[in-house]
TrEMBL record:
The keyword Transmembrane applies. It comes from the Bacteria. The chain crosses the membrane at residues 6-25. Keywords: Membrane, Transmembrane, Transmembrane helix. This is Transmembrane protein. The keyword Transmembrane helix applies. It comes from Rhizobium metallidurans.
Length: 35
């Protein structure tokens, strides 16, 4: 199991971070538009 764990875990972590960053930027953009 531990042989393929990093192969799946690292791209998944990068994907989650990318999605989180996208939503954070989108949220800030929407907040700026409201003001």
């Amino acid at each position: 199991m531990w042989d393929w764990f990093p192969i799946i875990f690292f791209p998944l972590k990068i994907l989650v971070l990318g999605v989180a960053m996208f939503f954070a930027i989108k949220w800030h953009h929407d907040q700026a538009k409201k003001k």
